């Protein structure tokens, strides 16, 4: 996989037209990670690319590591919404948005786990967290997905002046994604350690 003219190149990449995004993104210095909350990477990518949808992202990464690119990295995508970081607002103007195919927070019914949209998730794909005397359950991220994310972010850090690697929940209190199952510190370390 390579990066050429602000798009990823390689056999594992599917490009979807997202013509609604046209404003230039100059010198992105931030990568923002999201969870799709959808049923599949492809359905989420098609939803985000739809002209009638008021949101978009640069990439969607599936659970097998498959990649959908919707917006070139030199064009603003609408992924951050009302957002702030280090005194700046509207992070869309400064950031690359990457969506990871993940159902997010889960609900337990007996010994079964379900997404917000009613899909059952197998226990092997459930991350359990215990904080403040409360259990919560989250859809795990896969190794191929995280490996692909790290490879892409390393390419982006090498090409653009990226200083910040953030979660959606870091830039707005309205969102909880990518959630507690996302190994934020480990991924961030892998991305930036390779560029020292």
Report on the structure:
- The chain folds into two domains: 2-102 and 143-193, Peptidoglycan recognition protein-like (Lysozyme-like); 105-140, no CATH class.
- A six-stranded mixed beta sheet has the order 3-6-5-9-4-15, sandwiched between helices.
- The protein has helices at 41-49, 143-159, 168-171, 184-193; strands at 2-4, 7-9, 13-15, 30-35, 59-61, 67-69, 84-85, 88-89, 95-100, 105-109, 112-114, 120-121, 126-131, 134-139, 164-167.
- It is built from four helices and 15 strands.
Largest sheet: 6 strands, mixed
Mean pLDDT: 96
In angstroms, what separates the terminal alpha carbons?
A: 21 Å
CATH fold node name of the largest domain: Lysozyme-like
DSSP strand tally: 15
Q: Report the total helices.
A: 4
Shape: globular
- Percent of residues in β-strands: 25-35%
Name of the CATH architecture of the largest domain:
3-Layer(aba) Sandwich
Estimated helix fraction: 10-25%
Number of domains: 2
Low-confidence stretches: none
Radius of gyration: 16 Å
What top-tier CATH class of the largest domain fits best?
Alpha Beta
Secondary-structure-derived class = alpha/beta
CATH fourth-tier homologous superfamily of the largest domain: Peptidoglycan recognition protein-like
Spatial order of the strands forming the largest sheet: 3-6-5-9-4-15
